[in-house]
Amino acid sequence: MYYTIEDTIKALKSGETTSEKLVRASIDTFAADQKSEKPLNAFLEIYEDVIEFAKACDAQIAQARAAGTLDALFAEKPLLGIPFANKDNISVQGKKLTCSSKILEGYRAPYSATVINRLAESGAIPLGRCNQDEFAMGSSTEYSIYGPTRNPINRDYVSGGSSGGSSAAVAANQALFGLGTETGGSVRLPASYCGVYGLKPTYGVLSRWGVVAYGSSLDQVGIIGHSPRDIALPLSLMSGVDFYDDTSADLPESESLKNLSAYKDFSSLKVAVPKQFEEAKGLDPDVKKVFEDVKSWFASKDAKIDVVDLPILDASIASYYVIALSEAASNLSRFDGIRYGHRVDNQKGYDQLYVDTRSEGFGPEVKRRIIIGNYVLSEQFSGTTYKKGMSVRARIQREVAKLFESYDVILCPTCPTAAFKLGSKYDDPLAMYLSDLFTTFVNLARIPSISVPAGFTSESNASASNMPVGIQFAGAMFSEAKILQLAQAWEEDHAGCGVPVKENN
């Protein structure tokens, strides 16, 4: 497996490698990893027909090479022969789709998600489905019926969540890029923990058709890659209005993403650093040091950096969980054991079938969030708690939009800490929820943000020695091109902050 899409396409064009070789390398790595003492558990399965797809891609490349039309072929299908990782809540027709939950055990998707179809049209190959927190509810990929996904940097640590499987697969070089989803940071957080890039686009830029819903007004498909260019190209191919998703939207400047360049004019760049995040309780000293290093880099490029006061950000976590859990309780009511998925029928009537199926099918974290969501939506609270959460969200949107009238980018850490040890927060949901302290405001404001691998914790860090640290570049709505260009400039100056894991190469 090559490290970037760009390198891989060059190798495919020259005949140095083939799509089949790439796929077989991933299959062999997956098989070997399953036998290891501490399996990564990033992929749950490799799709059985992936070799056939790879051979078909190789045949097209060989034919075009013979005809002298190789460049034209890759212009039409820019990702031809490139395998990618897919999260277990994004539909691929005919393949298992379980959301890492017992309640969907054995279920197969009847159609493919729009993002999958658009990647397939560009020649990309869905390699297999990846582990996640059950129904995308978690920050560590420990809430999965398939067991946790380990961090490829240090397998005693979590990979982050909920898209931990996709992030670990990319970081371990088992896939060139991966698809995840996030409701409050579930792409950026595992990207930070695993030392790779992770983008959460503007709400609506990537269609949610075929993606299992958690919190519909917050959910967004995201992309994980080794470099900003490895994110920009798939983003340009997947973005745009979708007939099947009324919330979808076109992305301006999407064509420029196909040949992403580094940001140049830093002298006119204005960077906002929220005071609330700089002074946040629980911010690890090593994370703060890396954050200071990134600010120094912007300053060295002559960007203007200001500390701004946004008091409403202090309410982002509370607002997020009120809204997300309320929507989750509503969305997950469809999993009842009657229409599809797991069923427990003790012949005691439909009400008991419903109770028994959900009690056995859902894990503890999903049950916790459904109960809280239903409590918030109950008759005595829905008029106050939920409406208050929505009003706070509206204010966050207004104040963040107003901030972007004066500034180009918001800079902040991705997470208060680096990855933590497996099991250390499993039974402490409040500590787990606070992992999203710096990410949820992005989802509430519906803006894009990318986590860039910016450094590592120190060897002396007692809780996370030599673990990756991610920093966020967040922009105004539909400013994906700008923040990806900034990330590319960072990558060109700091190649090596996201270090490939050699053990799985």
Please write out the topology.
Elements: H1 5-14, H2 19-34, E1 43-46, H3 50-67, H4 70-76, E2 83-87, H5 114-121, E3 125-130, H6 164-171, E4 177-182, H7 188-194, E5 197-200, E6 220-225, H8 228-238, E7 270-274, H9 275-278, H10 285-300, E8 304-308, H11 316-331, H12 350-361, H13 364-377, H14 382-403, E9 409-413, H15 429-433, H16 440-445, E10 449-456, E11 468-474, H17 480-494
Parallel strand pairs: 2-3, 2-4, 7-8, 7-9
Antiparallel strand pairs: 1-3, 4-6, 5-6, 5-10, 9-11, 10-11
Helix pairs in contact: 2-3, 3-4, 8-17, 11-13, 11-14
Protein described:
The chain has 17 helices and 11 strands. It has 505 residues and is α/β, with parallel strands linked by helices. An 11-stranded mixed beta sheet has the order 1-3-2-4-6-5-10-11-9-7-8, sandwiched between helices. It is globular. The termini are close together.
